[in-house]
From TrEMBL:
GO terms for molecular function: nucleoside triphosphate diphosphatase activity. This is NTP pyrophosphatase (Non-canonical NTP hydrolase). Gene3D superfamilies: MazG-like. GO terms for biological process: nucleoside triphosphate catabolic process. SUPFAM superfamilies: all-alpha NTP pyrophosphatases. Signal peptide: none annotated. InterPro entries: dCTP_Pyrophosphatase, DCTPP. It comes from Variovorax guangxiensis. The keyword Hydrolase applies. The keyword Hydrolase applies. Keywords: Hydrolase.
Length: 109
């Protein structure tokens, strides 16, 4: 997992550098980043609006590429928000999975 952690750290630093080069840090408060994340999640959802379950599972390549771009937007804003709040995304996800396992135990075999 250290490769993934290093990748996330590198990506987070690249996001910091990108924002700093454009003097955007002033706009990147946790509130604003959470709002932007919500907007991007809605844009992701828009691609699935009115599709059937089957259609949502069998997307053409061009649609998948568009959705990939929206997923990236959501991911990048999430990383920026976590960075601003000092939250380790990997550790938070692992903790949440443990909580979910306790809350929703697998049925006995």
């Amino acid at each position: 997992m250290t490769g993934m952690t290093n990748d996330l750290q590198s990506l987070t630093q690249a996001l910091r550098d990108f924002a700093q080069a454009r003097n955007w840090e002033q706009f990147h408060s946790p509130k604003n980043l959470a709002c932007a994340l919500s907007v991007e999640a809605a844009e992701l959802l828009e691609h699935f609006q009115w599709l059937t379950e089957a259609q949502s599972r069998d997307l053409p390549a061009d649609k998948r590429a568009e959705i990939g771009t929206e997923i990236a937007d959501v991911f990048l804003y999430l990383l920026q928000l976590a960075d601003k709040l000092g939250i380790d995304v990997i550790e938070a996800a692992r903790s949440k999975m443990l909580l979910n396992a306790r809350k929703y135990p697998a049925p006995p075999a």
